[in-house]
Design a protein that fits this description.
Blueprint lengths: L2 E6 L7 H8 L5 E4 L8 E5 L2 E5 L12 E4 L4 E2 L1 H13 L8 E4 L3 E2 L2 H14 L11 H9 L12 H19 L5 H14 L3 E2 L1 H10 L4 E4 L25 H4 L8 E9 L2 E3 L12 H9 L12 E3 L1 E2 H11 L3 E5 L9 E10 L2 E3 L6 H4 L3 E8 L16 H14 L3 E5 L7 E3 L13
Parallel strand pairs: 1-10, 1-11, 2-5, 2-10, 5-7, 6-8, 7-9, 11-15, 14-16, 15-19
Antiparallel strand pairs: 3-4, 12-13, 16-17, 16-18, 19-20
Bound molecules: guanosine-5'-diphosphate (GDP), 6-O-phosphoryl inosine monophosphate and magnesium ion.
Length: 430
């Protein structure tokens, strides 16, 4: 099968957008399978910076079809804004961007509910993006959601939307601002023309020999089932979500590329065993420009965690890793890699279910020397300093999965392709 899932192996922002963009030329269709406009995927092309939130990062390639799958929660206002931003830089989406008729919609009241739920949690807040993602998924599993297909009977849609909004306003004791809904309805009406049964669209394309790139948002540790619950997002970010979130069956997936940062970052609250709260953490934040692409919040930073990487490889069936931001480590004297955790005096190698336990584990580190020369923009494995090569090999051994791609800068071409690794097959048109 020629269809590939790209998934984040940590807590998001691993650099998925860059790799979706890099691999898109070799695929016919790019599809997002979960999350919403909580995602922020940065792509840099010829020094121009694009941040895709809801639309698949493949949209920057003018001849490609992009799909927002049924597993995504869609805010029509956010979608229209993104379409306008793209149009202003010459990227037209008409006729090549489709939204699943089964995608649940985010309504303005979901944002109000998101904020209220965070406030109610007090000190235990998740640190959500406040985009209404969680409440929209609650409506979906609670079988109350309005879906994209509901736009086809627009008068009924408006009635139901306002009834839902009135109920939530009553429950939360908040004011129902009908004016907010006027602009929302305008966007929703515009979106209706893009709505299709995308499960058939994708499966027919695959039957016709076309290839699909499935773009994950967030990361494995933010997955609602397998991540650091309750400090997670409300969807299945892991590769399994790519089948439920698109309607492409598991046997249509030909491989899974895991994107891992050479260190780790996290936005929002929750356990982070290798977090650095010192000047090294600040150095990584500055050098890696680790500020949220959606909310601008400073990202928490820490050392690479092999326990989490192995867990991600297992859960996602990752057969190749793309290692990003190696260049951010260039100036460090020494680099730590977490090889296990200590908890109650015992060494553990597995990720515990309880966030309260994961927040108390003590990371066990292997320390290696830094390379102290620039790797920025290097495109050939043999040209990496030998200590950087050793670091990559060490991670590979610890993770138990080949590192086939190494990113040494934000631009498309700042990428090392490691010869004779399984990732190479995704770099040619197929
Ligand atoms: P995503 O959410 O996984 O798509 O990742 P983000 O786009 O939120 O964050 C990754 C950030 O790192 C973006 O600003 C990218 O432009 C940048 N980036 C990606 N790869 C590299 C790299 O190898 N080196 C450096 N210095 N920056 C990178
Ligand atoms: P990309 O796709 C990093 C985090 C939020 C919060 C938690 C729940 O760019 O990697 P939500 O608004 O989803 O209910 O928030 O998940 N989060 C992300 N962190 N990258 C993302 O997306 C994220 N999307 C959500 O910060 O901790
Ligand atoms: Mg991001």
């Amino acid at each position: 099968m020629r269809n590939l899932v790209i998934v984040g192996t940590q807590w998001g922002d691993e650099g998925k957008g860059k790799f979706v963009d890099l691999l898109t030329p070799n695929f016919d269709i790019v599809v997002r399978y979960q999350g919403g406009h909580n995602a922020g995927h940065t792509v840099i092309v010829n020094s121009k910076r694009f941040i895709l939130r809801l639309i698949p990062s493949g949209i920057l390639h003018p001849d490609k079809v992009c799909v927002i799958g049924n597993g995504v929660v869609v805010d029509p206002e956010a979608l229209m804004q993104e379409i306008e931003e793209l149009a202003s830089v010459g990227v037209q989406v008409e006729g090549r961007l489709f939204v699943s008729d089964r995608a649940s919609l985010i309504l303005p009241y979901h944002r109000v509910a998101d904020r209220a739920s965070e406030e109610a949690r007090g000190g235990e807040r998740v640190g959500t993006t406040l985009r209404g993602i969680g409440p929209a998924y609650e409506d979906k599993v609670g079988r109350r959601a309005l879906r994209a297909c509901d736009l086809f009977d627009f008068e009924r849609f408006k009635t139901r939307a306002l009834a839902n909004a009135a109920e939530v306003s009553f429950r939360l004791g908040s004011e129902l601002l009908e004016s907010k809904y006027e602009s929302y309805f305008q966007s929703a009406e515009r979106m209706a023309s893009m709505v299709r049964n995308t499960a058939y669209l994708l499966n027919r394309a695959v039957d016709d020999g076309k290839s699909v790139l499935l773009e994950g948002a967030q990361g494995t540790m933010l997955d609602v089932d397998h991540g650091t619950f309750p400090y997670v997002t409300s969807s299945n970010a892991i590769a399994g979500g790519a089948t439920t979130g698109t309607g492409l069956a598991p046997n249509k997936i030909g491989g899974v590329l895991g994107v891992s940062k050479a260190y780790v970052t996290r936005v929002g609250s929750g356990p982070f065993p290798t977090e650095l709260l010192d000047s090294t953490g600040e150095h990584l934040r500055q050098r890696g420009n680790e500020y949220g692409s959606v909310t601008g919040r400073p990202r928490r930073t820490g050392w690479f965690d092999a326990v989490i990487a192995r867990y991600s490889v297992m859960l996602n069936g990752i057969d190749s890793i793309a290692l990003t931001k190696l260049d951010v480590l260039d100036e460090l004297d020494e680099i730590n890699v977490c090889i296990g955790y200590k908890y109650n005096g015992e060494l553990i190698q597995e990720v515990p279910a309880l966030a309260s336990v994961l927040s108390k584990v003590e990371p066990v580190y292997k320390t290696v020397p830094g390379w102290k020369v620039s790797t920025s923009g290097i495109r050939d494995f043999d040209r990496l300093p030998s200590k950087a090569q050793d670091y990559v090999r060490l991670l590979e051994d610890l993770i138990g999965c080949p590192i086939g791609l190494i990113s040494t800068g934000a631009e498309r071409n700042d990428t090392v392709v490691v010869p004779n690794t399984p990732a190479v097959r995704w770099l040619t048109a197929h």
